[in-house]
Design a protein that fits this description.
By secondary structure, the chain is of the alpha/beta class. About 45% of the residues lie in helices and about 15% in strands. The protein has five helices and four strands; from the N terminus they run αβαββαααβ. The radius of gyration is 14 Å and the shape is globular. The chain binds calcium ion. Calcium ion (CA) binds next to loops. The site of calcium ion has 5 residues, from loops.
Length: about 140
């Protein structure tokens, strides 16, 4: 399962996150694991906490959560995000991404979603000061 994304793909995704974050003070992360037995959003919320994603200054972290074996996917924003963006908005990005996933194009789908999330974040969360990278852009692989 560590091979779900190749090293090159992980680097591409990480670079896409870095590029998206240049537009915004928001922080984007991707967590990937094989299985998710329970509720997808509950699991994503648990991972969000585990990764310390609630520690951004403006509470504007976004987690992309993917359990590829169980075909589960969620986008979860912190409280700062939810003030500005409704659930439907993330549903749109999700739908776009799932079209790629359905074709087996996971890396491309993630990159498209990350870029769209960056553009969306820029509207309410422009870069601040030197726009510190508060959360690592590296793809996080679970067990
Ligand atoms: Ca980051």
């Amino acid at each position: 399962m560590k091979d779900f994304f190749s090293a090159t793909e992980k680097e591409s995704i990480s670079n896409a996150i870095g590029a998206a974050e240049k537009l915004t003070s928001g922080e984007i992360r991707l967590f990937v694991e094989a299985g998710c037995k329970g509720d997808t959003l509950d699991r994503a919320a648990f991972v969000f906490e585990q990764l310390g994603m609630q520690k951004t200054k403006l509470r504007n972290g976004i987690l992309f959560y993917l359990a590829y074996r169980d075909h589960k996917f969620a986008i979860l924003g912190d409280v700062g995000i939810n003030i500005h963006y409704g659930d439907n908005f993330w549903e749109e990005i999700k739908k776009n991404m799932e079209q790629f996933f359905a074709a087996g194009k996971f890396c491309e789908g993630i990159m498209v979603g990350v870029a769209q999330a960056g553009e969306a974040l820029a509207k309410h969360f422009p870069p601040l000061g030197d726009n510190p990278d508060e959360l690592s852009n590296a793809v996080v692989m679970g067990n």
